[in-house]
């Protein structure tokens, strides 16, 4: 357990804006004393005399004793609280003015403003959460789909960090085994023991790589999948975006060039949070504004993690279509033949042949789907194809996904150290060198859960949290 800070902190813990209820959180050794200085219970009871997990009704008052707001005060005594410190939560009306006035009174009574993520940081420092679980708190707050929420909840429950702890224990057992031989050199280590260590290290690498295989999906579920919808004008890009969002977000007309800039929105597609970018139709144009939009569309093709390239199935392929095929060739893309409710002119086979010509025959054959946004035909197949791309069909326990780049980088570093240990064994070097490699892997795994991480890294991680969390 790390050293706790002695001061008492306070912050508004709900989002700004008008709401039915707004909550202010106070945590620290003087939390109850500070709250008692500003709160008057209708019953006359003091918060210092309240039992833990008890709610009192009353008012927060100003310096003269005049009511500021009618509130409920919840007392949580250490260690039975989020931070394992004394905590008081004041549930107020949700207006920003009243919450700021209440916070001002609490700060004047002896608390200080909490830093970003400081409540969760204190939960980590007290040992209530490890670092991976602490990061899951913000994943829950920012989850955009039910699937992303389930992954974050699994992380908070300790499913992912449990696997890391188990791997660290295996590492530590091997280190202890080898270091015992170093301490007692008269007992020579035989080849059987070295073979056992080698097999155990190889097994650990398999476990790490199985986790790393989930990083692509975990990152998508956490941050969303940047997806560009591209095609020539009037091919159905805005209609598709509206169908995916299930609302009329983009303007749909028969006039070419209606979308001149990019529109960006999030959509839940089969549990995958899609960050959809509807781009301007790609074509030659003399309109200066539209030309800027077309250039931005080309840029989005380069940067998107997935491209939905649309082609009018009721029309023959033209030069603009060929240009789009050239732009998406070799990139992660789904080719969509739109307007499937009309008599087909361009078939999937014709589109595949055109793609092969534009890609030079080297790129793998893409997935081609026929859809009609207007009639909602083929959208289920599109959602399934997006799910396949994101890897959300994995059978792994959802809480075991690697969902951030920091954890993935540390797992890769631990794997590299274990690989070095195998090379050391293969070279027949002393057990001292094997132990050094294993300890380096053990420390890298410990950085994921926060057991071997420096204060500077901890501060950086929690600085990305919102104030009040």
Automatic annotation (TrEMBL):
<feature type="binding site">
    <location>
        <begin position="234"/>
        <end position="239"/>
    </location>
    <ligand>
        <name>GTP</name>
    </ligand>
</feature>
<comment type="function">
    <text>Exhibits a very high intrinsic GTPase hydrolysis rate. Involved in the addition of a carboxymethylaminomethyl (cmnm) group at the wobble position (U34) of certain tRNAs, forming tRNA-cmnm(5)s(2)U34.</text>
</comment>
<keyword id="KW-0547">Nucleotide-binding</keyword>
<comment type="similarity">
    <text>Belongs to the TRAFAC class TrmE-Era-EngA-EngB-Septin-like GTPase superfamily. TrmE GTPase family.</text>
</comment>
<dbReference type="Pfam" id="PF01926">
    <property type="entry name" value="MMR_HSR1"/>
</dbReference>
<dbReference type="InterPro" id="IPR027368">
    <property type="entry name" value="MnmE_dom2"/>
</dbReference>
<feature type="binding site">
    <location>
        <position position="234"/>
    </location>
    <ligand>
        <name>K(+)</name>
    </ligand>
</feature>
<dbReference type="InterPro" id="IPR005225">
    <property type="entry name" value="Small_GTP-bd"/>
</dbReference>
<keyword id="KW-0630">Potassium</keyword>
<dbReference type="GO" id="GO:0030488">
    <property type="term" value="P:tRNA methylation"/>
</dbReference>
<dbReference type="InterPro" id="IPR025867">
    <property type="entry name" value="MnmE_helical"/>
</dbReference>
<keyword id="KW-0819">tRNA processing</keyword>
<keyword id="KW-0460">Magnesium</keyword>
<feature type="domain" description="TrmE-type G">
    <location>
        <begin position="224"/>
        <end position="391"/>
    </location>
</feature>
<feature type="binding site">
    <location>
        <begin position="278"/>
        <end position="281"/>
    </location>
    <ligand>
        <name>GTP</name>
    </ligand>
</feature>
<dbReference type="GO" id="GO:0005829">
    <property type="term" value="C:cytosol"/>
</dbReference>
<dbReference type="GO" id="GO:0005525">
    <property type="term" value="F:GTP binding"/>
</dbReference>
<feature type="binding site">
    <location>
        <position position="253"/>
    </location>
    <ligand>
        <name>K(+)</name>
    </ligand>
</feature>
<dbReference type="InterPro" id="IPR031168">
    <property type="entry name" value="G_TrmE"/>
</dbReference>
<protein>
    <recommendedName>
        <fullName>tRNA modification GTPase MnmE</fullName>
        <ecNumber>3.6.-.-</ecNumber>
    </recommendedName>
</protein>
<dbReference type="InterPro" id="IPR027266">
    <property type="entry name" value="TrmE/GcvT-like"/>
</dbReference>
<comment type="subunit">
    <text>Homodimer. Heterotetramer of two MnmE and two MnmG subunits.</text>
</comment>
<dbReference type="GO" id="GO:0046872">
    <property type="term" value="F:metal ion binding"/>
</dbReference>
<dbReference type="GO" id="GO:0002098">
    <property type="term" value="P:tRNA wobble uridine modification"/>
</dbReference>
<dbReference type="Pfam" id="PF12631">
    <property type="entry name" value="MnmE_helical"/>
</dbReference>
<dbReference type="GO" id="GO:0042802">
    <property type="term" value="F:identical protein binding"/>
</dbReference>
<dbReference type="InterPro" id="IPR018948">
    <property type="entry name" value="GTP-bd_TrmE_N"/>
</dbReference>
<dbReference type="InterPro" id="IPR006073">
    <property type="entry name" value="GTP-bd"/>
</dbReference>
<keyword id="KW-0479">Metal-binding</keyword>
<feature type="binding site">
    <location>
        <begin position="372"/>
        <end position="374"/>
    </location>
    <ligand>
        <name>GTP</name>
    </ligand>
</feature>
<feature type="binding site">
    <location>
        <position position="89"/>
    </location>
    <ligand>
        <name>(6S)-5-formyl-5,6,7,8-tetrahydrofolate</name>
    </ligand>
</feature>
<keyword id="KW-0342">GTP-binding</keyword>
<dbReference type="GO" id="GO:0003924">
    <property type="term" value="F:GTPase activity"/>
</dbReference>
<feature type="binding site">
    <location>
        <position position="469"/>
    </location>
    <ligand>
        <name>(6S)-5-formyl-5,6,7,8-tetrahydrofolate</name>
    </ligand>
</feature>
<feature type="binding site">
    <location>
        <begin position="253"/>
        <end position="259"/>
    </location>
    <ligand>
        <name>GTP</name>
    </ligand>
</feature>
<feature type="binding site">
    <location>
        <position position="259"/>
    </location>
    <ligand>
        <name>Mg(2+)</name>
    </ligand>
</feature>
<keyword id="KW-0378">Hydrolase</keyword>
<feature type="binding site">
    <location>
        <position position="258"/>
    </location>
    <ligand>
        <name>K(+)</name>
    </ligand>
</feature>
<feature type="binding site">
    <location>
        <position position="238"/>
    </location>
    <ligand>
        <name>Mg(2+)</name>
    </ligand>
</feature>
<feature type="binding site">
    <location>
        <position position="25"/>
    </location>
    <ligand>
        <name>(6S)-5-formyl-5,6,7,8-tetrahydrofolate</name>
    </ligand>
</feature>
<dbReference type="Pfam" id="PF10396">
    <property type="entry name" value="TrmE_N"/>
</dbReference>
<keyword id="KW-0963">Cytoplasm</keyword>
């Amino acid at each position: 357990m790390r050293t706790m800070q002695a001061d008492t902190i306070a912050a508004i813990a709900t989002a700004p804006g008008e709401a039915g209820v707004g909550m202010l959180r106070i945590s620290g050794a003087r939390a109850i004393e500070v709250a008692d200085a500003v709160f008057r219970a209708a019953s006359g009871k003091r918060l210092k005399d309240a039992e833990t997990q008890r709610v009192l009704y009353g008012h927060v008052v100003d310096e003269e004793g005049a009511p500021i707001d009618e509130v409920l005060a919840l007392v949580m005594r250490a260690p039975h609280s989020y931070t394992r410190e004394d905590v008081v939560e004041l549930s107020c009306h949700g207006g920003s003015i009243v919450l700021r006035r209440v916070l001002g009174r609490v700060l004047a009574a002896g608390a200080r403003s909490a830093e970003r993520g400081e409540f969760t940081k204190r939960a980590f420092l007290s040992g209530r959460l490890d670092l991976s679980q602490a990061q899951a708190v913000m994943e829950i707050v920012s989850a955009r789909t039910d699937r992303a929420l389930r992954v974050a909840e699994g992380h908070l429950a300790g499913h992912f960090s449990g696997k890391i702890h188990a791997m660290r224990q295996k590492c530590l057992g091997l280190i202890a085994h080898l270091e015992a031989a170093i301490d007692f050199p008269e007992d020579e280590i035989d080849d059987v023991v070295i073979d056992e260590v080698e097999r155990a290290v190889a097994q650990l690498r398999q476990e790490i790589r199985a986790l790393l295989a989930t990083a692509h999906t975990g990152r998508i579920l956490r941050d969303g999948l940047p997806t560009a919808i591209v095609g020539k004008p009037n091919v159905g890009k805005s209609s598709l975006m509206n169908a995916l969002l299930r609302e009329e977000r983009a303007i749909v007309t028969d006039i070419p060039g209606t979308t001149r800039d990019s529109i960006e929105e999030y959509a839940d597609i089969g549990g995958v949070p899609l960050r959809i970018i509807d781009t301007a139709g790609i074509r030659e144009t003399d309109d200066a504004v539209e030309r800027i939009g077309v250039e931005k569309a080309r840029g989005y093709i380069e940067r998107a993690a997935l491209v939905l390239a649309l082609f009018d199935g009721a029309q023959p392929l033209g030069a603009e279509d060929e240009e789009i095929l050239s732009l998406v060739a070799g990139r992660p893309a789904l080719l969509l033949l739109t307007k499937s409710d009309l008599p087909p002119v361009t078939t999937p086979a014709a589109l595949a042949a055109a793609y092969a010509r534009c890609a030079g025959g080297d790129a793998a054959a893409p997935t081609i789907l026929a859809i009609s946004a207007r009639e909602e035909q083929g959208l289920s197949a599109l959602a399934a194809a997006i799910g396949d791309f994101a890897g959300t069909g994995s059978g792994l326990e959802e809480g075991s996904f690697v969902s951030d780049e920091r954890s993935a980088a540390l797992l890769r570093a631990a794997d590299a150290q274990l690989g070095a240990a195998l090379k050391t064994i293969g070279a027949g070097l002393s057990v001292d060198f094997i132990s050094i490699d294993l300890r380096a892997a053990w420390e890298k795994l410990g950085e994921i859960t926060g057991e071997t991480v420096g204060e500077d890294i901890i501060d950086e991680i929690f600085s990305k949290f919102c104030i009040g969390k």
